[in-house]
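User: Sequence in, structure out. Go.
Assistant: Echoing your sequence, followed by the structure tokens.
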Amino acid sequence: MTDIRKFLADVEKSKKMCRQNNGGAYDYHKLADNLQRLFNRASGCPTELPDTIFNYWENAYVLNSPDLQNEPSSDHLEKLAAMLAFLNNSDEMSELLTDEDWQEIGSLVGYEADDLPIDILQDLMKILVEHNAY
């Protein structure tokens, strides 16, 4: 199982526990902090960039959803997994990210560039250039 598939499996376990601890009802706000911790732990990036990318994903895809009670949807989780793959220097699932996603991720990386180790920055920049984020 890849790290990305493990992350998605861990998220599903978290969602299940959230429902069990909430009388069978689902509440994204109760899941959000744990989801962000899982994302950060799975990321190989040692800076604030994972939090920043998670916040972008959450605001762009989850909190704007007309069906918040069923978020994160499997499509939205796969987008988050693609963002995680990017942070881990992988192109896995990158086709799920839109041009707008790549542009925003490129901006976020640029904002955090001073704090990133040079080798990680170079790897991320290579992927961003391949996806025309610059």
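User: And one key feature?
Assistant: The chain has a mean pLDDT of 92.
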